[in-house]
Design brief:
The chain has 256 residues and is mainly β. The protein is 5% helix and 66% strand. It has a 20-stranded antiparallel sheet that branches. A hairpin with a 4-residue loop joins strand 10 and strand 11. The chain starts with a strand and ends in a 5-residue tail after the last helix. The relative contact order is 0.07. The model has no long low-confidence stretch (mean pLDDT 93).
Length: 256
Amino acid sequence: EDARLEGQYRHGRLALDTMVVRSNAAVAEGRGTLAVTDTAARSDLSLRAEVTDPDPLGALVGAETLRLREGVVETRIYGSSLATQRFDGEARLTNLLYDDVRLAEAEVTFNGQRGTGQLFRQLEVDGTLGYLSLPSLSAERTRVDAFYDGTATDLSADVRLDPTHRASLDARVRTDAERTDISLRRLTLRLDGDRWSLQQEATVTVGADYRVRRLLLRSGAQQVAVDGIVDPQGTQNLVATVEEVRLGAVSSLGGL
């Protein structure tokens, strides 16, 4: 709806005395300096954006229903030169309703370093979600930590569905234009009284075909093993074995 901008851009350096942008859905504010192409210039820029009315955003995201009590993002970009430019910040959501998806609250912090040949040289994200309801599943609390080092992402997650169902994992994810490789280093599942754990490092590859290698989960005498390939356009060679599995704890997840 309106914007106010005071500053200048000279020789690859942006200097903002004041920036205020208001729309019918959000307001954004910022001030400070940012090295854009000047390799020797310092950076210290603060930005803040807040959703003031989620209704106009519903049409943009194709939502029949969109409600939000709070939606805020704050970030700071800083560094003594373009090569050392870093950023950090946080995002907060409360009481989100997006069609059939409900989220009570979310808090995410992030920090990283700008890349040269790619957008990020390094990126770290830590997030906590409160009660989350999906059409077929709900979770009381979810914690996710991710660290990208420029080539791959180390990911850890802990999901508590309810007091008797919980899952946690550690994995390394590598993605290129053709496929995504996931190395599962740790996976534990608590299903009622059963505690399942990954017995060895397993890999999952998603691309033109789907490959699973060395996936072995055990809980006492119970065991699930998967190994092989599924190719929608070619060979199918997937072997799955299930031994002495009690179905009660598993079926309770789907309310069966």
